[in-house]
């Protein structure tokens, strides 16, 4: 009965707006007495605050704090004083960016992606044959959910675990997360404009260009109006530093925004894109003539967009059941996942190491693109030695994630070498050669 309730719970809460976010965080804690649930609430809040104690949120919040503080100070002291209309509007805009950015950032972090209740079972028990079982959560994985090892829970429509919010990006916080990714670069562009203009106007009167030299006289006063404080060297240094941060953030976060928009308008998470790639691979290999249709793409970008962005801030759906393509059903993707899992045992998609790799996060010797596109995760990198064999489970264009094939002794001891490595360092073993080589080795033995 308890499990039934937990499935229905999000559906009921849907109409109640923000309550949904709270209830989902509670997982399956329903059915407790008043006091215990209150105590639990307290503890969960404490647990949520702990999310801040991590390098990701600390760096992100520091960047936000530095950029907005310096932008506000630069504006009101030197560049655009508050006693002008433009200055007031500029000030309100700057505060507005900061508030909006923090609002979306904290919502992405604290609302969280939505977790599948522990011990979850499909409403119709016969459907469980189409689903994978999560041993950690002791329940079935509902469609589109995946287990996150960092959150230690099965996450609704999981896209990835983001260290910057120290939480997963998934069903409930997808809109907040993406809004943050849009607002942060916009705010940074505004701030960068203020920084540049402050430095320009403050230094303009002090710079004198000679034939072969540039002189900056920091003691010279600005002619037009005298600010409350002179633009000193520390102020100049702080502004220049903040400009660097703002430009860096604009580029890096702007790129992440483009990636997330692609995910949203296709209604296909990065994990699902990988499953689809493997589905194509599997069908092509077996020549089954199946046609794999990705079930969650509703056919129009706008429809897909509206699934995530709603006026209430709560995305469409309960995070368990999803609208699907007319030729598909609720379990099209989970059945494909099960087929791939079974297929994994039958044929081995192995990769052989062709180039050594030392396990560095941003290896310089593996090319610029590998260096720049290093996966933004805390997951480990594994060092590679030529000749080793790996079993890749997912990847990006430049990086792959997988298990090293270990010796029998190591495998028996329960060792596992799992992590990221540059795609450049490995080569796909053809299925035949992979099988042949193992059979050859066996013959030799
Ligand atoms: Zn799980
Ligand atoms: Zn996570």
UniProtKB/TrEMBL annotation:
Listed transmembrane segments: 59-81, 87-106, 180-200, 235-259
InterPro entries for the chain: Palmitoyltrfase_DHHC (IPR001594), PFA4/ZDH16/20/ERF2-like (IPR039859), SH3_domain (IPR001452)
UniProt-listed Enzyme Commission number(s): 2.3.1.225
Record's compositionally biased regions (Polar residues): 15-29
Topology versus the membrane: Multi-pass membrane protein
Annotated Pfam families: DHHC, SH3_2
Catalysis: reaction(s): L-cysteinyl-[protein] + hexadecanoyl-CoA = S-hexadecanoyl-L-cysteinyl-[protein] + CoA
UniProt note: domains: The DHHC domain is required for palmitoyltransferase activity.
Similarity section: Belongs to the DHHC palmitoyltransferase family.
Record-given protein name: Palmitoyltransferase
Naturally occurring in which organism (per UniProt): Conger conger
Source organism phylogeny: Eukaryota, Metazoa, Chordata, Craniata, Vertebrata
């Amino acid at each position: 009965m308890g499990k039934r309730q937990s499935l229905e719970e999000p559906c009921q809460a849907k109409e109640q707006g923000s309550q949904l976010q709270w209830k989902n965080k509670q997982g399956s804690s329903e059915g407790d007495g008043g006091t215990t649930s209150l105590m639990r609430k307290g503890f969960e809040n404490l647990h949520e605050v702990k999310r801040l104690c991590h390098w990701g949120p600390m760096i992100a919040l520091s960047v936000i704090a530095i950029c907005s503080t310096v932008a506000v100070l630069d504006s009101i002291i030197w560049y655009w004083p508050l006693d002008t209309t433009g200055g007031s509007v500029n000030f309100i805009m700057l505060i507005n960016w900061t508030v909006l950015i923090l609002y979306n950032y904290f919502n992405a972090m604290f609302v969280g992606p939505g977790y599948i209740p522990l011990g979850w079972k499909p409403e119709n028990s016969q459907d469980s044959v189409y689903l994978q079982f999560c041993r950690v959560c002791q329940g079935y994985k509902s469609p589109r959910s995946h287990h996150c090892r960092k959150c230690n829970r099965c996450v609704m429509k999981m896209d990835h675990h983001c260290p910057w919010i120290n939480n997963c990006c998934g069903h409930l916080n997808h809109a907040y997360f993406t809004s943050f990714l849009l607002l942060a670069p916009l705010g940074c562009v505004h701030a960068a404009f203020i920084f540049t203009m402050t430095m320009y106007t403050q230094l303009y009167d002090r710079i004198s260009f000679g034939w072969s030299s540039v002189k900056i006289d920091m003691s010279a006063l600005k002619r037009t109006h005298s600010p409350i404080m002179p633009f000193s060297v520390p102020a100049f240094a702080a502004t220049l530093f903040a400009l660097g941060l703002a430009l860096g953030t604009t580029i890096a976060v702007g790129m992440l925004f483009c990636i997330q928009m692609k995910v949203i308008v296709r209604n296909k998470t990065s994990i699902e894109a990988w499953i689809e790639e493997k589905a194509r691979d599997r069908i092509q290999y077996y020549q089954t003539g199946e046609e794999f249709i990705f079930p969650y793409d509703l056919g129009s970008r706008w429809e897909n967009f509206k699934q995530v962005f709603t006026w209430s801030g709560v995305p469409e759906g309960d995070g368990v059941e999803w609208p699907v393509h007319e030729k598909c059903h609720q379990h099209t993707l989970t059945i494909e996942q099960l087929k791939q899992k079974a297929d994994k045992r039958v044929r081995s998609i192995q990769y052989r190491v062709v180039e050594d790799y030392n396990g560095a996060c941003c290896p310089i010797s593996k090319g610029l693109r590998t260096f720049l596109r290093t996966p933004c995760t805390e997951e480990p990198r594994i060092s590679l030695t030529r000749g080793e064999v790996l079993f890749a489970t997912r990847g990006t264009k430049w990086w792959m994630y997988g298990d090293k094939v270990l010796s029998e002794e190591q495998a028996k001891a329960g060792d596992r070498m799992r992590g990221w490595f540059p795609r450049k360092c490995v080569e796909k073993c053809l299925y035949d050669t992979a099988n042949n080589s193992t059979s050859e080795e066996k013959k030799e033995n």
